[in-house]
Amino acid sequence: MRRAIFKHRQDFLAIVALMAIGLSVAYYILQHQRLRIPILEDKPFILRAEYQTAQAVTPGQGQTVRVSGVRIGDIGKVELQRTGRAVITMEIDRKYDDLVHTDATALLRPKTGLKDMFIELDPGSHEAPLAKNDFTLPLRNTLPDVNPDEFLASLDRDTRDYLKLLLNGAARGLKGRGNDLQDALARFEPTFRDIAAVSGEVSKRRRELRRLIHSLNRLNTEVATKDDDLSELITTSSRVFRAFASESTNVSATVRELPSTLRQATETLDKVDRMARILGPTSDKLVPVAGAIVRANRSTTPMALEAAPLLRRDIRPFVRELRPLMRDLRPAARDLAAAEPGLTRSFTVLNHLFNLLAYNPEGREDPDKATREEGYLFHLAWLQHQVVNLFSSGDAHGPGRPITIGGTCATARGLVAGQPESALITGLGGVLTDPDICGGGQP
Known about the structure:
Elements: H1 2-7, H2 9-32, E1 45-51, E2 64-67, E3 70-80, E4 86-92, E5 105-110, E6 117-122, E7 135-137, E8 142-143, H3 148-153, H4 157-173, H5 178-187, H6 189-204, H7 206-224, H8 227-246, H9 248-358, H10 376-390, H11 400-406, H12 409-418, H13 423-432
Parallel strand pairs: 1-7, 2-6, 5-8
Antiparallel strand pairs: 1-4, 2-3, 3-4, 5-6
């Protein structure tokens, strides 16, 4: 035997290689066909479920068991009980044997329109115990697939006709607008998610709902025995509602004022929000300051202890003596406070006037310029100097200007006596002798 194998070793190795390749291909096909190999794989976790009908369920065709779209096992076989119910055996992978609870639900669903079925399994709540091997889900926890003909058969002829019209109209309306419908359905996803969350919470509260319904039944039974009390309650409620109705005008006025109040509240809250955003970082920056204040208080405590006797001995008597004076000054301070706006405006105007008089547009003298523009103060001083020269009695042009501007009769007589030969003095002679001006007489 060995000699023959050694002699034909190439052929033998080729046969072994072909057998290995065949076994590998067979294992690959069996794995993709979801067939379990007893020696290589663990025995599956068996879970059964009762159904009213197991139509289109065909074991061995790759029909799976899924939880939230994830495969956890396969459909093993289908059996018919004497009661007329179908029992489907589910072979669950061993790594999911602690997933299913006794209150789990199993729904038959098609993956395609060709009735390629799978079981959508809801593991149940954590409050229920875990399902053991060979556990059977009762009929109340399962639901088969519903065929369209079964649904249409439950409708009468008019309803079916209306439904056909509705579907035909929807088909014409949605023709070529599949993307728009997809976008519209996508916008409803948050709503569906919230509804699913609410439904899940309601399903978890079945016991509470039963208790609530029982309590409502007892309440209604007790109320039925209290007809007189209930009648009195209704009468009292009627009075209350009439009182509310009589205040409808005030309620309407309150409702009319509500929008403006809400707007003002919104604006105020916006300002408060901005202030809070500023106050938050400011408070964070004040934390070191608070520590510094504590240290400063500790440092100033000795000084405060030393200053307390001085305040009692010296400052307090001074304050007592100063109080009558402050009471006397209070009316004057009140009047000064009342006059302060007028004084402020007056000093403001004077300040503007002084600024105007002191304004010098050229500033300091520029050596490159022959002349410069002076301010009003310079010209006022120049004008005052010229007025003194202009109206001086010792003017080289004679006494005409002093006489015409501010000269008295005594000044005119003195000038006439000092310069009798002047032509102006000759003209003044008639003025001095006029009885209406200087009282007449000799000049």
